[in-house]
Amino acid sequence: MKKTIKNSMLVVILSVMTLAMARANDFYLSVKKDDNRTVDLFIEKTNQPLAISFVDARGEVLYNYKYKELPTNVKRYNFKNLPTGTYYFVVESETKIEKVPVVLSENETVVKRGKTTTIYKPYFRKDNNLLSVNMLSIDESPVDVKIYNETTNQLIHEEVLKGEKSLGKRFDFSNVNGVYRFEVTHKGNTFYKTVSL
Known about the structure:
CATH topology of the largest domain: Immunoglobulin-like
Number of strands: 16
Helix content: 10-25%
CATH architecture of the largest domain: Sandwich
Number of helices: 1
Largest sheet: 6 strands, antiparallel
CATH class of the largest domain: Mainly Beta
Shape: elongated
Radius of gyration: 22 Å
């Protein structure tokens, strides 16, 4: 009986670990064994908006598609007509942008998952006249927040958030109304959000 309970606990622990690993990687890429120019994108099913693009080394978009809800969790791409070189799969969700290099040579296609670049996006939450801005900064690099009056384009507030992996700030707009534009910059990437109060 003790052995059965112990084995059951082990199965539960392994299931939880597998789920945690699956959540850590929202997607992965796999090159077909019998066709080295075909890449399968396996992506976790989600009902959140998602954008998938394939770009070349100059940043030119070769393929781009936006999904409100993924119809399937596997997408297949064939690159037999592309010249050799480095390309990038870009998968963008509401919370982050991941860019994975894919190197096409004459004889093979190599997915360089270890060279993935991840850009986290700010999260905005409005609660009556309070607006919260949260941003993940894994390397604790600073995040610059600017607020503009959308009508006059006048900068009304600027603040640099720093020193933590998870940065956040609440802004109280109880005494004002109008339309405001937030500009959140992190490591050279700027995100915009317009709110009416």
